[in-house]
Amino acid sequence: MCKFQILFDEAGPSAVEHPVLEPYGNLSFPAMQAKRPWIYANFVQSMDGIASFKGKHASGGDIAQSMEDKWLMNVLRAHADAILLGMNTLVEETHNLPMLNGGRGPVYRTEGEELRDLRKRLGKAREKVIFATSSATIDPAAYKIFDGDEVDAFILTTASGADKLSDKHVQTLVSGSQGTVNLPAAMGMLRQNLGIKLLLCEGGPTLYGNMARERLIDEKFVTVSPMEAGLLVPPEQEPAEQEKRNPPRSRPTTFTAIGFTSENFPWWRWMSCRRVGSHQFNRYRRERTVEENARGVNPRQ
Q1: pLDDT digits (tens, 9 = 90+) for 253-270
Q2: Positive or negative torsion for Cα 7, 13, 14, 19
Q3: Is the peptide bond before 204 cis (omega within 30 degrees of 0)?
Q4: Which one of 33, 111, 185, 235 is least enclosed by Cβ atoms within 10 Å?
Q5: How far apart, in whole angstroms, are the C-alpha atoms of residue 108 and residue 128?
Q6: Is 26 a domain residue?
Q7: Residue 244, exposed/middle/buried by CB under 10 A (0-12, 13-18, 19+)?
Q8: What is the pLDDT of residue 168?
Q9: How many whole angstroms from its chain centre is CA 123?
């Protein structure tokens, strides 16, 4: 792995000194006065904003093709009290990685002993992974992450979704009655009930978009891979097994949800920029709205 070249960095010093951070440099997060976690997202995208090829090469790693991007993902996991994902991300990655854990999917924990030691130095507790889903139409027993031997896994769903769960022993968080998860209320629940101060949102793009619509994303880390994918799926691309009945016509961007208008879109402040070769590693912090400032939800710098 190569050392990151720092082009500029306006973020604060690292919370702890640890040799594992030496390739990247300083990394820390502000304390928050709000009654929800400080929420940061991490995505990789092509130069044209595509987050996945779909088909048999649908992972972010297929877009990134970068050891440094994977390493940074684990650094960001090491700092988080919990990871938030959409349930479809688990389902799709389990299909696309049929050999992983006997076909039972990924676990989404911090990889590497040095990075796990960083977690300890940061005072982090056992890793938590939270899957958001309105319908909860899955069998948790089919996925290794719900075994409970490596991380604590939760399903965040509606009251009607919780009633549909086949495994009533899975740890469930309920926010909203039916239809869609009440994300603002859920984030308050994570802070108050589980003590989560730093939450890493790893997507997918629909969950991220819905979180962004609610002004719940405070920061985002974006790796820009020096390649173009194109929005429309080319006819020569072979679909993945689960796509064969209804092959996708387009590829997702990092924001795949109802968007904004020219009157209400959020502004972001570019916090830092690093490079490794032709890969670019950016960090942004969302500018607070007038209403948020009035409610006193600015980070303490």
Answers
A1: 999 999 999 999 999 999
A2: positive
A3: yes
A4: 235
A5: 9
A6: no
A7: exposed
A8: 66
A9: 21
Contact 37, 197 (CB under 8 A): yes
pTM of the model: 0.94
Tokens 């002993």 appear where?
Answer: 113
Task: Judge whether 28 lies within some domain.
Answer: no
Phi-psi region of 55 (alpha: psi -120 to 50; beta: other; left: phi over 0): left
What is the number of domains present in the chain?
1
Tell me if 274 is assigned to some domain.
yes
> Cβ distance 14 to 122 under 8 Å?
no
State both tokens at 119. 């977690």
28: amino acid identity, one letter: S
What the block records as the tokens of 203 is 């997507």
CATH number reported for the structural domain that contains residue 112 in this entry: 3.40.430.10
Residue 43 structure tokens = 């995505």
Q: Is 44 part of any domain?
A: yes
Q: Within 10 A of 234 (CB to CB), how many other CB atoms are there?
A: 9
Q: What is the pLDDT of residues 106-141, one digit of tens each?
A: 999 999 999 999 999 999 999 999 999 998 788 999
272 has pLDDT over 70: yes
Range of the domain at 82: 5-21+33-300
Tell me how long the chain is: 301
